[in-house]
Structure formats: C-alpha cells, structure tokens
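Sequence of Bacteriocin-associated integral membrane family protein (Bacillus cereus).
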Amino acid sequence: MKKLLVIFLIGQLFLLSYIFNKSIYEIYELNNVGDSSLNEYIIEDFSGNKLNELYEEINSTYLSNKDFQLQIVKTPISKENHFIYDIYHSELDNINKYKSISLNKKFNYYSLTKEDFVDSNGIFSTNIKLDDLRELSKKIGITIKPYSEDVSYSKIVNLSNINFVILLILTQLVLFIYTFTRIKVNAIKKMLGYSNFKMIQASFKDFILIESILLIITLCVHFLYYIFIDNIVLRYFYLLVVYLIIIILINIVMLLFTQFSLKFIDISLMMKNKIYSNKLNFILYGVKILLIFAITLSISSFMSNYIDYKDKLKTLDQYKQLDGYFTSNGFNYDEDTKARKNPNIIKEYGNSVKKIYDQYDKKEQLYVNNAYVLELLSPGYLKMNGLEKEDVYNSIKDNHIVVNERYIKDFMNIKNENGTKITNLHVEKPSILVPSKYKSQEFKVKEIYIKQYNDLLNYNNNFKISNSESREINDLNIIYIDNNQEYELLGQVYEDDSFVKLKDTILIIDQGNFGSLYYYDLLNSGDLYFKLEQRDDFSQILAKYQLDKLVNVGTLLTPYMDELHSVEFIMYNSFVFSILFLFTLIFVICISNYVDVISNNRRYAIQYIYGYSFIPVFKVHIIVYLLLLVVMFINLFIDFNIIFYITVLGIDFIVLLYLYQKIIKNDIHKIVKGG
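Predicted 3D structure, token representation.
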C-alpha cells in the first residue's frame, strides 16, 4: 500500500507543480514585473507637459533621497510570439533584476530618465505616499489615483474547478485507505502499549519522510529542466518550494483527519484476523461509486476539450490560405495612449499608415475589412440588449461592413440581383452594395449611409487635428445585390463560433479616401491586411514608417493560433488530471473489491461450498450495477461519457470476480478453517 501511496503522491506533486509552472507563476510574474514593492498609480487626462512637470517635482523633492523610488514599465511588444518588457527604475542598482522562466518573455532593465517618464502612458509605481502624490497633483493640476492591473489567480481555479475538487477528495480518500490498511500494524502497537499519540506520531513521521523525499525529487526535475535550457531563476524555485510545502502541509492536515480510525481498533477482531469490517466495506463501496461518477465527469470534460481542440485544428486547416496575409496582432497601448494625447504624433502616425495604404493598394496587396457589426452579433451584446441575431440582421443602420473591392473579390462570394457572382466592381463613385429587399427604402438607405460615408471622410476631426479639411458627398451610388446572402468574414474571430455568418449586410466600398486616422485605427485593430511573402517583410514596412513601436506583427492565422493554444492548454491540463484520476480510480476499485471479498469471505465460502451459482452470489452487486446504469440518462442534461462510465463499471465487476476466484476459490480450505 505504501508503494501505491508514493506513486499517488508523486503524481500529485508533479501535477500541481506543472500547474504552478504553467499558470500560477506566470500570473505572479506578470503581476510583479520590476520592483513589486512599489505601489502603482495612474495619471488621468495627462499630457507630455504635465508628465514633465510631475517628474521634475518628484525628482527634486523625493528622488534625491535614495529611500524613494520611481518606476515605469512599458507594455510589451511581441515579435515572433516573444514579449519584451522594458522596466525603467530610478534606483536600478538596488533592485533585483529577475529573468523570466519563459523563453518567449524577456525583461530589460534601464535607469529611469525624464525622457522615459514623459514618453509613457501615465502609469507609474513608487513608494511615495498617496497623500504626498495628491499634493503634487493639485500643484500641477492633474489627478493621480491608485491603479491595479493584476491578473486574478482565481482564473486558474475557475479553469479546472471540478478537477481540483476531485483531486482534493481523491487525496483524502487515498490517505483514508492508507491509514486503514495500517490498522493491523496499529493494533499490534496498541497491544504492546503504544498510546494513540505515539501511533499518530509514528504515522506522521513516516508520511513526512515520504513527502520530503518526493519534494526533493520534484524540485530536482524542475532544476534539471531549467539547467538544460540554461534559464535558472532563483525566485521561481523559492516560490515553488513554498508552494509545494503548502501542498504537503494540506496533505498532512488531511492525514490527521484519518487518524480517527485508531478509535475503531478492536483487538479481539484483530486476533481473529478480521482486519476489515463490513462498515469499512460499505464506506469504501459508497465512495467508489461517487468516485466513478466524479471521474467520469472529469474524463467527459477532457474528451470535450479534446474534441474542441480537434475542431479548432480542422478550422485552422480551412484557413491555411490566410497564412500569407499579415496584419497587426494587437497594439502597444502605451504608445497609442501617448499618441492620442498629442495631435502632432497621432497625425504623423495617420500619415504613415496612409502612405503604406497607398503603396500596397497600388501593388494590389492591401485588403480592408472593418466589421463592427460582429460585436453587435456577439452573445454578450445580444443578451445585454435583449436582442436576437435577426434583429441585427434586419437593421439597415447597424448591419454594415466596410471593405475594399479586393477583399470582396478574393474573400467574398457576392451575387448581384440576378444571382450571378460579382467579380469586378470597378466603382469610381462613392458606392455601397445593398440587398435588393431595401429598394423600397432607398431614400432612407441613402440618408443613413451618406452620413456614415461623410463621417469616415472626416474621421480625423474626431482627434481635434488642426487644419483638417472637411469633405462631404451629397449622393451615393447604390449597387443592389441578391437577398438572403450569407458569408463568413475570413480573418475575423468571433466570441461564440468561428463560423458565424453575416446575412443581408450592406457593404460600404472603401476607395482609400477616408480619413488617414481611420486607417490608423484599422491597422491597430487588425482590419488592414497585407499580402506578403513573409513576416519580416511586414516588420520592415512598419520599421520604415516608424510604426514598429506601435503594433505587433501577426498573420491572419494568429488569432486562430492563439485560440488553438488556449484550447490546447486546457486540454493538456485536463489530460494530466485525468491520468492521475484514472490511476487512483483503478487503485480504489482494487482496494474496495479486496475489502469486500475479505470482509465477506465466510459468506462467499459457504455459498461456494453449497454450490451457489454466479448470480445468487453477486445478486446485490448486480442490482447495484443495474441501478448505476440508470445514471446514464444524466447525459441528457450534462456532458457525460457513457462509454467510459460503462467500461469502468465493467472493470470494477471483472476485478471483483478475479479477487473472488483468487481469494475464495483458491483458498477455500483456509477460510473454512478460520484463516
């Protein structure tokens, strides 16, 4: 039994240390970038001048004293799925410069200068008291508030809450069985005069020794791995030790709960070799049934995650054509915030994006796809506003997208009124494609979309840029298309389903004449696509126009890959849990049936001698199995893997028959003699 306990405990520690490595420490690392002893604050409605004034005040009043520190962290920019964090600190020599344990994440440390502080997004960390900061903010004319962007650790529990509960119950059960299998040893000790306290002490000493050895083994595995990849981070190992010790302490407390069994030691029964009672048999049998049910739910969850993962792979295969199209995979919030507060910077960014647009539009390598309507079709928005998808589909104003002709030609299958596919539009005037069912409402359609078109032409006015020319159109060319057309927008990721389709959507044709900052926002949101040979080509384009600090490089496949990796992590998490659970379930099935046969060996032996057939001997078990099969109907309400459930019940019965054959039939003479 001790060997089985050791196998379970090492499996438990490996599993939980894996979760620590992949989830807990990564969250800790993100929540403690740089000097984590400092408090974080945010400046509201700031400008470069205000940041300059604040830095001057802090520098002259506090930073001359080494006890006060100031830090900013630049939001990471990713390149080839690598994330870089730039940490600027006023006392760089006095802080721990931790590395990341992730090979795709890097922390760079720099001494903080005024220029760095002014070139930030208004979020900073310091140990200056909040009251003192408020005094400074009043003096300068800004507002400073405490700020927190920490990721919650509860996300880990929410991800696998059922599995964690099952693991907790399993651990308690294994320790319970382990304690009861030592009942004969404890009975002998009791006969020799050992007190309950001494027996508990001996049990704990043995258990702590096992856990200590397993702790060292687990740490060695982690240490050897990080030596192999040459990335030893002492902070990681300090926290891992603390984490594993907490797990071990929880195990010790759970072991303590099992020590009540010492009260049930019956010396007379031990003398008669009756180690296991019927009471223990009933308890184990009930626990086994609950365990089979719970682990079936866990396996069902794993199978569901696996199917989801396979579906995502199929979806990815369908979208392989997107691999040669590049766009931004997120943007630098710090840089964007700074730009939006400075009209000159935002104007330059807009001009740069427009130059890229014109350059690659001429090469026929640029695509526009702006589909805000997808947000209106998201389950969250529909539920919040009490709407159905049809309500959005039937809205003349909301059900529209902005695309260029090239996107329509290469990615969409749109038919004209006669049902013929539109291949070449060649529009020269401001135009929209409208389902023919709106012909009777042409005046209303024009009224709405002339205004919408003018808003896009004068998009730069939203940024209060001086010398922006107002442009307007008074008429729109309407091209009517077939009704009830449905199509998926490749390159877009949806909240609930990768195959959500648009229906009866009005298409605004982009001709490259909208406000430059409209294209700036499209680039940030990943709605401008470039057809290029490789990723470096896109990186070079961004660098040429000083946009490489603003956006992250990605293909149109990137969002699907991110989603796939998320599902992959959940699946592997479920898989590791399932392996441990399966091993434990087999162990519990063996122990439970062993106790059943041993505690009822006299009855089984007598029935065997009198020639009872298979069914009468196991009549109670068969009835219980039939009742348990009724549980299969739970599949109508929750995800429940019936095949696995029936297989486990079958294995349980086979183990019972095997032990009956081995213990009762083979040793019938010993049992009859009272052995």
